[in-house]
Amino acid sequence: MQPMVTDNTRRSLLKAALFGVCTPILPFGCASNGIKNQPALIGCAVTSRNQFSAVVADKQGQAIRQLPLPARGHGVAIHPHISQAVAFGRRPGEFMMAFDYQNGEMIALNSSGYQRHYYGHGVYSNDGSWLFATEGERGTSRGIIGVYDVQNGYQKTDELTGFGIGPHEVIIMPDNTLAIGVGGVHTNGREPLNIETMQPSLTYLSMNGKVLEQVSLPDHHLSIRHLAHDGSETVLCGQQYRGQPEDTPSLIAMHTRGGEMQPLLAEPEEWARFNHYIASIAATDKWILATSPVGNCYGIWSKETRRLVELAPLPDASGVVVHGDQFQVSSGAGMVVSNQYPLSAQTTVSNVQWDNHWSAIV
């Protein structure tokens, strides 16, 4: 086991900034107090200029409560069995915050520590005992999966490494295998430094750190970043293209262990709409939905044919979750789209300026 390195001063400052963490943004208090709307999803949001929060919302994307964050958040991991979640700082993030989403109480606030930063994503083990977070080494971008003991106050107990640089999102498969989108990009802050030599991959890792399989895409400029799985064995990968501006490569691929990457299909002018970047991905048994905030749109693909079946505009399209066979899509403009393809999509307005990703409470 690797010892945890802690920046006590920075952590103390972060904790001081977050006393009284639960703040109502509707006529609701921190406790439920008979609230009819039940928590169904959690995402990060922009509260006001230079103020950010994690927001617990109902199934329609209407906020129930918000928890202030010390800086801009990115992804949220939700515990599979109890009412706990963790919000991660946006790359290069300096914090992760664990909280109870039913009562709004903060459980732990971890600093990234000396020579480390968070990439903005994490996932619980299927039994809920461990939290796995994507991290990097400052100065080298060496990829790390930080391992945190949930029952021991989210103390860091180990670091898994040796799989590449620049990991972004990690998900867990039903068989407890970790799937990691390894972006392959060495950065200084957010500035890429190795575009011509980057080596992205989709990496499968055991929970004790053994590399089980690594696959890559034909174009090394396709940085693998965001992931989802279909509840079974298929992983969906969303890419950020780091090549020539005029190129229009496929930005999403499917993969099942032991097989080859299978790119999803769309016309060049359709890929151009996504502006070289895929953010959130979700899948039902028939359809795949992916968003692009920089492209102000989302697309739906058939899992069977891999072809794009719908391309829709949505300003600052951000998070997506699945409830049954219905997609819920968030927007930085406050809109929420309910799409049960092939039925017509329904758009409502929420009271939140959603930012980056959504995670569903199961």
Automatic annotation (TrEMBL):
| Top-level taxon of origin | Bacteria
InterPro entries for the chain: Quino_amine_DH_bsu, UCP028101
Q: Which Pfam families match?
A: DUF1513
This chain belongs to which protein, by name? DUF1513 domain-containing protein
